[in-house]
Amino acid sequence: MREVQQERAIATRQHIVESAAAVFDSEGFAGASLGRIIEQAGTTRGALHFHFPTKDALANAVLNEHNNRMTAVVESVIHSDTSALEQIVVISKTTARMIDEDAVVRAGTRLLMELTYSGEPPIAYRVWIEACEQLVRKAVDDGDIVPSASPQAVAYLVISSLAGIQMVSSVLSGRSDLDRRVDEMWEVLLPGLVPADRAWKVAGLLDSALHERT
After folding, report:
1. How large is the average pLDDT for residues 179-200?
2. For FRET with 107, which of 87, 145, 149, 166 sits at 20 to 30 Å CA-CA?
């Protein structure tokens, strides 16, 4: 009986997180009210406060779920049988696709932009930059990125560019052009990163992106 109760509590908590994500996604942190989240979840105020005493606690739970889902993406890609350079591109494109398709990821992305942090900032960007930096270092060792490139600077540029692209795409097109804008980012960046004798790799990655769009 206790195990059944625990399973129900976990399921209820997850349902509330996903319902809160839907509200944060559509209305933002400031616009989202606990009453609206309760309505979306189809629960009671008491049940909500049992799991999350404040709206801040709910936002943190959405951010944690967002981080878990994006970490799973990175882990699955880096363990695939592809080059580090291709993995960097795939992670960026998969991230864009998840922002477009997954309400929790979308809400977490919006919360990262909207919230202010008096203490330690969320780990998301830091983790993504560090993961990208490791892949850039490996791509340099593989000869797929020029040795003069700073792995830290490249990683920061890629993650910052991706964050900015999704925000501008959201405002201007409701993210309908997000995939294409990410492809365009790589069309600009790759020729400057990849050695001239590996130009065929750039062509291959850009051709793959073109085929995905058509």
Report:
1. 93
2. 87
